[in-house]
Amino acid sequence: SGTALNVVGGNTVYSSQNGVLFDKLKTRLLLYPPRKSIINYTIPSSVTTIESYAFRNAIHLEEVHIPESILSVGNSIFLEANHLKRITVHVNNTIYSSTPEGVLFNKDKTVLIQYPPNGPYTEYTIPDTVATISDNAFRNAIKLTSHIIPSSVHIIGTFSFYNNTSV
User: Fold this and answer.
1) What b/e string do you get for 55-75 counting C-beta neighbours within 10 Å, with b at 16 or more?
2) I need a labelling partner for 155 at 20 to 30 A (CA). Which of 9, 14, 32, 111 fits?
């Protein structure tokens, strides 16, 4: 049913915690169950990598908290997590950052990784530090009716504005 992924204790490759799938040492978050009913999830501090598409189709998820420990985030980790309102990154994370409105960036804000699809705005001004907009960054952000893209942006990823009324 997609609400929990549970791994038996003797498995030498995978582990699970609260129904979320990890590698054995819980350093890689592999898959968050698409139908898991909680709306606010804090990634464990043992995790250093979030694999590509890890939160794909997480239909109930509204907030994700990324710990200081995260060093690597895969491609399109929040694809089709359309209720996501806010992504926060621990202030001491050296690789990633977030803004008060919950947008995920790399630390120096040159890469906009993810605007939460259910974010708060109808108009969003991309910071002029941004050079790259990642794949699927604004996908399904249907509340947005307007973007302001600064001249600093040189790369716009695949499907960055897919199913977005402002484009």
Assistant:
1) bebbebbbbbebbebbeebee
2) 32
